[in-house]
Amino acid sequence: KRFKTFIRISIFLITAFTILNGLFFQPFKNTFPSNIDIATGILLVIFALILFKQMLQYPVQVDIIKQSVFWYNTSILFFYATMFLNLALTNYYGKHLFTNSIVFYFWYCVDILFNLFLLISIFIDNKITITSNEPQFSRYTR
Q: pLDDT of 70-114, one tens digit each?
């Protein structure tokens, strides 16, 4: 119940922050909304860690590596944890015309791994029923 309240509050705050950021801090016509990337990146890392904690506290009968939600969650955690500073500095990169910087090669490598993890998640998509004693996982069963 606390977690659902936290999610609802964070959705409201991110929506309000997006509107305020677009109107006052980083206008949509002039800059990339990197402030929003920072805020949503922090929330996505927190949500991914909470989901990993839940997956480890309430294990299901299927091995964790064979669950598509594990690979999807890994991709989100990996991307936003490694690209946090890079996404925050997007406007700086645009103003200073970084073209062949090592930062962009890092960005490409992380993006490739992110998409690889998503691809694994799609291919592993569980065709079997995953059951658990915990009611939070009931909506994930097939």
A: 999 999 999 999 988 888 887 777 777 766 678 888 889 999 999
Structure tokens at 23: 């109107």
Element (H, E) at 12: helix 2-20
CB 130, CB 62: distance < 8 Å: yes
Per DSSP, helices labelled H in 26-89 are 34-57, 68-82, 84-88
Position 142 pLDDT exceeds 60:
no
Q: What's the distance, CA 136 to chain centroid?
A: 20
Burial class of residue 113, CB neighbours in 10 A (0-12, 13-18, 19+): middle
d(CA 39, CA 35): 6
Site of tokens 């909304």 = 33
Task: Please give the C-alpha separations between residue 137 and each of 54, 55, 74, 110, in angstroms, as whole numbers.
Answer: 9, 9, 18, 30
